[in-house]
Design goal:
The structure is a single chain. By secondary structure, the protein is α/β, with parallel strands linked by helices. It has one domain: NAD(P)-binding Rossmann-like Domain (Rossmann fold, 3-Layer(aba) Sandwich). It contains nine helices and eight strands. It has helices spanning about 5-10, 10-15, 20-30, 40-50, 85-95, 115, 130-145, 170-175, 190-205, and strands spanning about 30-35, 55-60, 100-105, 120-125, 145-155, 155-160, 215-220, 225-230. The chain has an eight-stranded mixed beta sheet, with helices on both faces. It is globular and about 50 Å long. The model has no long low-confidence stretch (mean pLDDT about 95). The chain binds zinc ion. Zinc ion (ZN) binds next to α8.
Length: about 250
């Protein structure tokens, strides 16, 4: 049951068609892992916390730097030098004290990825590099956990939702070994847009409403202000999800 306070706090989304108090209860029970507390992780975490997702685990190994502040809106001037997980969990709890936030300081790697995603209900890709995305994609497939991919560069971003065994995974789509690491150009509004799309996908999935970005890659070009969509297919020979069969 939702409390009077929760009915008030979430009233405007409870009004949404197909959402209702039942949808809010589902959000309250949901447990979401956000891999990364930076440019994408900030808007994803903020909107999931605001919407009342009951349990958010945020994983990041970095400390806040001055050069993060143009886009990583969970972190402020006063946080420079702090662990991102501390800065993030403090802000999220201030935003919504009704939810649980668990912050883990780890570098996601082959050895710990399975443990870090645990038995959570959903995994959000808020990373800045392809090798870690591949690790998360593989863990999501192995554990049958829906995976919400997002990536940004400059004015451009892309996003896709993966339902293991049912829809294309990111390994069905990307075959590249890696993207160049290190610092790349980005304006804060780009991860804000992509992260908000990921957050909306997560909320729709949990509540069970709307159409998801499955079997299509949604791309955003902020420079020319265009969205585009590319149909993708589950690859029967995909090294991560091929063994699960098709639709
Ligand atoms: Zn695949």
């Amino acid at each position: 049951m939702l409390t009077a306070d929760e009915l008030d706090r979430y009233g405007r989304q409870i009004m949404l068609r197909g959402f209702g108090e039942e949808g809010q209860e589902k959000l309250k029970k949901a447990r979401v892992v956000i891999a990364g507390g930076g440019g994408l992780g900030s808007p994803v975490a903020i909107y999931l916390a605001a919407a009342g997702v009951g349990m958010i685990r945020i994983i990041d190994h970095d400390r806040v730097e001055l050069s993060n502040l143009n886009r990583q809106i969970l972190h402020w001037d006063e946080d420079i030098g702090r662990r991102k997980i501390d800065s993030a969990s403090e802000k999220l709890k201030k935003l919504n004290w009704k939810i649980e936030v668990e912050a883990i300081e780890e570098t996601i790697a082959v050895a710990n990825v399975s443990h870090l995603v645990g038995d959570f209900d959903l995994i959000v890709d808020a990373m800045d590099n392809l090798p870690t995305r591949y690790l998360l994609n593989k863990a999501a497939i192995e554990k049958n956990i829906p995976f919400f991919h997002g990536a940004v560069y400059g004015f451009e971003g892309r996003t896709m939702t993966v339902i293991p065994g049912k829809t294309a995974c990111i390994k069905c789509v990307y075959h590249g070994a890696s993207t160049p690491g290190g610092k790349f150009p980005v304006i804060g509004a780009t991860p804000a847009i992509i992260g908000c799309i990921q957050a909306m996908e997560v909320i729709k999935y949990i509540v069970g409403i709307g159409e998801l970005i499955t079997d299509r890659l949604l791309t955003f070009d902020g420079f020319n202000m265009k969205f585009a969509e590319f149909k993708v297919k589950k690859d029967p020979n995909c090294e991560d999800c091929g063994h699960l069969g098709g639709k």
